[in-house]
Amino acid sequence: KIEENCGKEENLDFEHLIGEQNGPFIFSILDHSKDVTESYRTKVFPVYSSDDYGSLQFVMNENGLPHNGLFSLFLAPPATKCEESSLEKAAISGSEYYPLAIEDSWNKFDDILENFQCRVKELKS
Questions:
Q1: Closest to 98 measured CA to CA, from 77, 120, 69, 74
Q2: Nearest alpha-carbon partner for 74 in 114, 42, 26
Q3: DSSP state of 122
């Protein structure tokens, strides 16, 4: 069971999750898009995309995705293109990017994606 205050630090700010306060820092740590070793470079792939009318579409394609490494799920502004530079942009601007989950196992990350799929419609408000 997840506690009601999970991800919050009441002494800092009870209204916001710690990830909301530290988004740019989290994204700067995750961004390895310019690593000299190709296998260490950050790979970014879309999970959901919104159309011109704000409808969310599941667009993730598992074919060709690595199933080892560190996985992160984050929200980006609706009109943002999902590309390798996304984490770099999030680290710089941060204000409209939100880290949701970080996992080191594809199986656990897949569980997170399933949970996200069940709850994504709540995000439209």
A1: 74
A2: 26
A3: G
Q: What is the length of the chain?
A: 125
Distant-in-sequence, close-in-space partners of 121: CB < 8 Å, separation ≥ 6: 56
Q: Which residue from 94, 33, 93, 45 is spatially nearest to 73, judged by alpha carbons?
A: 45
Q: What is the pTM of this model?
A: 0.72
Residue 48 makes CB contacts below 8 A (sequence gap 6+) with 56, 57, 58, 59, 60, 120
Query: Strand pairing of 71-75 and 98-103?
Result: antiparallel
Nearest to 31 by CA among 67, 83, 78, 79: 83
pLDDT tens-digit map of 23-61: 888 888 889 888 999 888 888 888 888 777 777 777 887
Adjacent-strand bridge partners of 103:
71
